[in-house]
Amino acid sequence: MSAAMDTESTYSGYSHYSGHSKKAHRQGRDRHKSPRSKDGSRSEKSVTIQTPPAEPLLGNDSSRAEEGQDDNWGETTTAITGTSEHSISQEDIARISKDLEDSVGLDCKRYLGLTVAAVLGLLVFLTPIAFILLPQILWRDDLEPCGTVCEGLFISVAFKLLILLIGTWALFFRQPKADLPRVFVFRALLLVLIFLFVFSYWLFYGVRILDSKDTNYQGIVQYAVSLVDALLFIHYLAIVLLELRQLQPMFTVKVVRSTDGESRYYSLGHLSIQRAALVVLENYYRDFTVYNPALLTASKSRAAKHMAGLKVYNVDGNNASGQSRAMIAAAARRRDSSHNELYYEEADHERRVKKRRARLVVAVEEAFTHIKRLQTEEQQKAPGEMMDPREAAQAIFPSMARALQKYLRTTRQQQYHSMESILQHLSFCITNNMTPKAFLERYLNPGPTLQYDRDRWFSKQWTLVSEEAVTSGLQDGIVFVLKCLDFSLVVNVKKIPFIKLSEEFIDPKSHKFVLRLQSETSV
Fold first, then answer.
1. Which of 57, 65, 210, 481 is the 20 to 30 Å CA partner of 241?
2. Spatial distance between the Cα atoms of 368 and 396, rounded to a whole number of angstroms
3. What residue spans define the domains of the chain?
């Protein structure tokens, strides 16, 4: 437990240092910018929102500060504690309130659709039963006796209703995966068809049976059976439209993330644009690596540094065209040499990553050598020295904590891995007798988005941008965009081409060969 407390103090010192180093860096940058704030840029308004440490957008400043640190930063670091400051603008408050209103509207629309579907489904299942019971209640004495065939129809209605109930539960009563901007066209058409169908049956029943008080009870039961049969056929139609129609691949979509250009290809069937967007998002969380804005910070800062040229001033109206041309040429030469800087920066970064990766691998392998799984007979010998997986993880974690921290900082992954998540993963690996390589796989190879903590990557709302109606089907050449707060997914749709295959028969007896001998050969 003391080792775990030391680990927590190490992590707390690391977090306080990174937070206050960012604050000092920001204050120093503001002091350098303060002389320029007195000119004509006073009318511009800027608001900075500092997000909590658990948000995924942190790590940009810490990654820049890491570039200037040496390998012995842990021994020469002073931890300063303090409180964090947060600011929010009126525009953000208005945006938050608008998002709340939109979410309330979406909830109302969703519950309204569920209520309508539930009421219609209840009406469908009660209608055949009502057709059979109403004559027994209203004019029971005038009805003809129900024979053997009529009683057999009761069993048929009961089992058909049970099959219809199970099929409806399996097809329609599912947990909704998303709130779509528009209604599902095929589902709405099926609801309208069922309503018109049941309404027409009730209308015929009221005119021909209730008004005339028909005494042929077997015919009434047969009428109810025909209704149940028709409902079963509508259920088959729903399976074809909602499930089977989209199974055959007809389109290939290319999904590109706008920030880093990572792309994937998927095959889709006949779907509307909004449902295709839902399939793309489901596959995105599974296939794409987690979005890490810290990896883009270095390239953006480097591009801004090299794009900033030399400023030329005309003092007292003197003509300085020759000097200006010379200074512009010097700036162009400096930009031309930027590829050398990029090459050496990337080479140095790869060298540092490889070195810290090697240190991490060695530290984890040494830590795992101190853990031994006790067998059943060994557990009875030394009960005082046994530990559960959580305690074992806390015992060996301090020996690898420093190497893991430095590696995560170098690869800019520190915002996605908290100490608690690392301990949970370590105890999981110890419980399942996994090797050090299996433990390191999560940190050495950036995994899919679903691998990380949900609060660090999940976007609660996506915006679908399309020139076509989102309820229309996919077509060749359609492009739509899925936007969230930090990035967007650009989806390009291409139709799978028609493939024509021809057949050519080869007789197995035609495979005959002749050995040709030449004078130069050794045969």
1. 481
2. 7
3. 104-244, 251-292+458-495
